[in-house]
Amino acid sequence: MEGGGSYHRMPKVRIREMKDDYLKFELRETDASMANALRRVMLAEVPTIAIDLVEIEINSSVLNDEFIAHRLGLIPLVSDRAMEMRFSRDCDACDGDGQCQFCSVEFHLWARCESDQTLDVTSADLKSNDPLVQPVDVARAIDAAAAGGTLSSAVDSSDNRGIIIVKLRRGQELRLRAIARKGIGKDHAKWSPGATVTFMYEPDIHINEEMMESLTLDEKRQWIDSSPTKVFDIDPNTQQVVIVDPEAYTYDEEVIKKAEAMGKSGLVEIYAKEDSFIFTVESTGAVKAYQMLVNAIDVLRQKLDAVRYTEDADFHLLDEHMGGAAL
Amino acid sequence: MNAPDRYERFVVPEGVKKVSYERDTKIINAASFTIEREDHTIGNVLRMQLHRDPNVLFAGYKLPHPLQYKILVRIHTTSQSSPAQAYNQAINDVDKELEHLKNLLEV
């Protein structure tokens, strides 16, 4: 076979804003298929850790067992370990439901209300056997305490009381053991690290300046106000129409329709740049937003690696069958 | 009760090949690849990459049914190339693009 040429692209990335649970970046010089693959992988295939198995010992709360198990599953856990962990279904060190350092993390919860005041059972009551895997809000409180202030004051501060699992009245008790496992969002949404992952095409807006100048100031204002989002404005000095925020444009075409209605079709032309994308990534906190992107690239590369076609794949399968037959 | 296991959506069953190749009987240099347990994520990115290859005359993919967890990628190439070669080249090219992206992010 002749050696095929290489036709890969060299995309560019510019990070605009980065917080632990938020990322905004530009991806340029690539295709929508690549942008969409990254988005899909971030949402459904970047692994995280979530509670998957719950053994309830005592539950005299008002919520039934499965309701509580479901709520526990949805609590985001710090999943920095997830990329290195094993899926419990391919873990050979255990049978998949025990305490195994490679594929699971155990949690215990015990709460009993002894007073007349309602007791909130929260994510802070979950005791993990792995200090690296904690509910994200608890981990944040620990970090805040380490940075200054006491642990209890950080946990008790009104904006960070933990995620409420159930409320108990006097005499009610909840006691359980939970096993958290690695998983992906495709399996169950509780394993998705993404709260929202979106991308938009960067708009390319061209104003026909000559035609625009044929409008009176009042007409310009009317035209600007026809846009549901604030994309255009009037320069107070020159009284010219200026683009203040091209990305506020939602491809609603209201300004184009308005221009037509004013008998000024062609006043503005707006195209979507086919190779520029603006991504917004919001994380649940399980994986940091930036790490979600890095992990998505790794996961996508692993997936690609698995779908390479080898002609001798058939022979490998044959070998396995023959080996099996010989036994 | 008889619901299939959730992981059946993304774990290739034992004895099933991840990728299988079937030559087109009517057109030379045309073939379709069946990729088990993959979806639009891989399908669309491969298709678009194949379109960049001038030796590829046709490239398309389909997800035949939402409950059949597989995709079909059909490729027709010129005599300068072959479907298998174009297919693997497309994978390598997407991988290079991702490697480049990763290097950009880890500065």
UniProtKB/TrEMBL annotation, chain A:
Q: Which UniProt keywords apply?
A: Acetylation, DNA-directed RNA polymerase, Nucleus, Transcription
Q: Report what the protein is called.
A: DNA-directed RNA polymerase II subunit RPB3-A
One GO term in the molecular function aspect is: DNA binding
| Matches recorded under InterPro entries | DNA-dir_RNA_pol_30-40kDasu_CS, DNA-dir_RNA_pol_insert, DNA-dir_RNA_pol_RpoA/D/Rpb3, RBP11-like, RNAP_Rpo3/Rpb3/RPAC1, RNApol_insert_sf, Rpo3/RPB3_RNA_Pol_subunit
Task: Name its cellular compartments.
Answer: Nucleus
Recorded family membership: Belongs to the archaeal Rpo3/eukaryotic RPB3 RNA polymerase subunit family.
Pfam families, alphabetically?
RNA_pol_A_bac, RNA_pol_L
Segments forming domain DNA-directed RNA polymerase RpoA/D/Rpb3-type: 22-310
Provide the GO biological process annotations: transcription by RNA polymerase II
**What organism does this protein naturally occur in?**
Acorus gramineus (Dwarf sweet flag)
Top-level taxon: Eukaryota
Q: What is its main location?
A: nucleus
- GO CC, any one term: RNA polymerase V complex
TrEMBL record, chain B:
Source taxon at top rank: Eukaryota
The entry sums up its family as follows: Belongs to the archaeal Rpo11/eukaryotic RPB11/RPC19 RNA polymerase subunit family.
Q: Where is the DNA-directed RNA polymerase RBP11-like dimerisation domain?
A: 31-103
Q: Which GO terms describe its molecular function?
A: DNA binding; DNA-directed RNA polymerase activity; protein dimerization activity
Q: Which InterPro entries match?
A: RBP11, RBP11-like, RBP11-like_dimer, RNA_pol_Rpb11_13-16kDa_CS, Rpo11-like
Q: What Pfam families does its record include?
A: RNA_pol_L_2 (PF13656)
Keyword annotations for this protein, in alphabetical order, are: DNA-directed RNA polymerase, Nucleus, Transcription
Its source organism is Acorus gramineus
Name its GO BP terms in alphabetical order. Answer: transcription by RNA polymerase II
Entry's localization field: Nucleus
- In Swiss-Prot or TrEMBL terms, this protein is called DNA-directed RNA polymerase II subunit RPB11
**PROSITE patterns assigned:** RNA_POL_L_13KD
Q: Name one GO cellular component term.
A: RNA polymerase II, core complex
